[in-house]
Write a structure and sequence with these properties.
The complex is a heterodimer of chains A (371) and B (413). With 371 residues, chain A is an alpha/beta fold. Chain A is built from 15 helices and 8 strands. Chain B has one domain: Rossmann fold (3-Layer(aba) Sandwich), CATH 3.40.50.11900. Chain B starts with a helix and ends with a helix. The chains are: A alpha/beta (371), B alpha/beta (413). At the A-B interface, helix 5, helix 6 and helix 14 of A face helix 7, helix 8, helix 15 and helix 16 of B. Bound molecules: iron/sulfur cluster (SF4) (2 copies).
Chain lengths: 371, 413
Amino acid sequence: MESLREFHEVAQNPYRYAAELKDRGRKILGYFCSYTPEEIIYAAGLHPMRLFGSKEHIHLADKHLQSYSCSLVRSAMADVMAGSLAFLDGTVFPHTCDSIQRLSDIWRLNTNLGFFADVVLPVKLNTESAREYMIAVLARFKGELEEHFSLKITDGNLRSAIVRYNEIRGCLTSIYELHAKDPSVISGSDLYAVVRASMIMDRDDLAVKLAAVLHELKQKQGTGRNSGKRLMLVGNICDHPDIYTLIERSGAAVVWDDLCSGTRYFEGKIDPDTEPMTALANRYFTRPVCPAKHVSPFARGEHLLGQVREHRVDGVIFFQLKFCDPHSFDYPYLKEFLDRAGIPNMMLEAEDQLPPEGQLLTRFETFVAML
Amino acid sequence: MAQIDEEKKKRKFKSAGKMRDIMFEYYVEAKSAGDNGKKVAWITSGGPVEPLIVMDVIPVYPENYGAMIGASHMGGDLCEKAEAMGYSSDLCSYARADIACAPVNGGPIGGLPRPDMLVCCNNICGTVLKWYEVQARYFNVPLFIFDTPFCHTGFSDEARTYVRRQLNEYIAFLEGACGRKFDFDRSIEVGRLSLQGQRLWQEVLDAAAHKPSPITAFDAFFFLALIVTLRGTQTVVDFYAELLHEMKEKVAAGISAVPRERYRLLWDNLPVWYRLKWLSDKFASHDACLVADTYTTAWCGSMKYIDENDFLSSMAEAYTRIYLNIGVDEMAKTVFEMIDKYDVDGLVMHSNRSCKPYSLGQYDIQRMVQERKGIPCMMIESHMVDERSFSESQISTRIDAFMEIIKQHKGHV
Ligand code: SF4
Ligand code: SF4
């Protein structure tokens, strides 16, 4: 699809895109993790951009980080040391896992990109005191932005941001749903590019372009055929578009995911009629939970089974970066949930590089053949 | 020969046997809790234990058990079991060992008593959150999470409000689990004992400032068990008072922990539990004494935030601002202070693959120490309980090389 070209370009060259935005006078804040209150950044007229790390010159991180930290953390550190993130006007660290927690300290002590904020969210997302604490934390973050950039974020700004984000997330959800219904309407790697670019592109521009993609896909509906096996991808971030292509070559399609670079980024609407900070906090309390946060000991397993049923998933591929504690702790129980429900599953662990293509394809083919 | 034995005896701690007895009794009591109509709570090592004591609930510490597992060289085997259960070998080896123990009653004392409830405080790491979720699923018992926001650069007002409110929620949780009201009068007494215990423990550790030091970090790792497991009780206060007395006697008699202490070193991070003796002998063979460490101090490091007259509400803040729950630069400050206080010649950092919150950032601390304090540093990489990861010959060579540098630095070669 022609309309997808730009998404691919942005997904492949996020830093080039950012540099161009910067040239046009935009101020850019880099952030980690899907719990970053992007809406507040947007409401301030700043550009929020998710950092994934380019995986180039990753050895530069050796000066600050042990080899047993995940490749996301290492690669981001390497990029900032190499000067690849010079376009940033600041960085935002929400509190999630132990590795990001320490990366934040190391970053603060060794870089100077202007704005810096830790957004120390609660770990529990199931009590009233945690909710009130979260609202206060969001308000503090807003105040820090206002002070550093000498601006005022009004309730009106926040409400427009909420409307904009609902639009974007709504579009992404609809595209995912269309694809889940009929995976042939858009390829996995195209969809990957769309989601990835959505965390990078100018959000106003994005909203228009996403709506166009959705419109085009709706026209295409019904024309595709795909009787292949239906898979779900579960894990932290999937930074490898090749995975989708290889899975398709092995006769299956990824019809849904539980990834922080996938549905966990866009699921959950924000109520536009509630007081903005409360509304933002409420979304975090209701969207699918990341394993670094707590709702209940069974929340993720139940969510996973729900998704498997809803999207008629034949098999699950756990995909995670090595050295990721929160996901590694959840894997055995999630697997047990699936095993008990009779859903075949496999685990794929990656560092900055994937295993060789031939080997991966064989693994996928073997797995798909079992379904 | 007889003389050497005599010397060795003098360096030994009389209190060691006593502590073993106390720990033995404690575990017997915990294991027979059910028979005595008492409830057991599993709690994280940095968790707010005092309310449990007020409620007569026996606190049990899987991390302390993890240390015992490590010291009895059972870690590798249990960690392997956890891997067979699907847990990655990169995870904290305390957690892996404990998770593997639970279904088979494994480990040195045949497993921990079954918990009636779980209390998890994330002031040490995010690992405990995941680990306690695992146990909440396995034992199917209520889980209370005491969420202590990380203090990168300070302690915010909203964090203070949040942790204080949780203290009330915690008390309500305990009242529900025990079917009894919380005794606020008793909590004053328990708070007093807790603080007293912490002060005495700090004094014990402070004795290492004396030259030569009567105590090594390896001794501290051993004596740590009580402040972790029984804080808030009279037992701890009495025991540490006695230990302190013994320490003073040693200082008065000029007895040093390492025979010819020429070099004083500081240890960072958790111990390597299955190699305590080997490491201790190794350094002693270079006339080096690891006089202090950042780990055992963590149980008395946030006393400054406790209000003696209002223990209960101030403890929420104190538990939030403990050593591991602060930024790398704050941790470095503590390291600088310890370097000065104990007048050490070098820093030995355990880069502990088990513990990311403790280990990530060590490279930066190392650099800061070298720049500001000008003392040599070395790193030892391992997992604190999983002995399969320890490469003895490599570490031995590196310690030799490090000690050479220290000697040169001191102008001794
Ligand atoms: S991949 Fe895992 S370890 Fe790495 S930053 Fe994300 S949650 Fe943390
Ligand atoms: S060793 Fe580290 S990761 Fe493991 S429980 Fe202790 S603080 Fe947490």
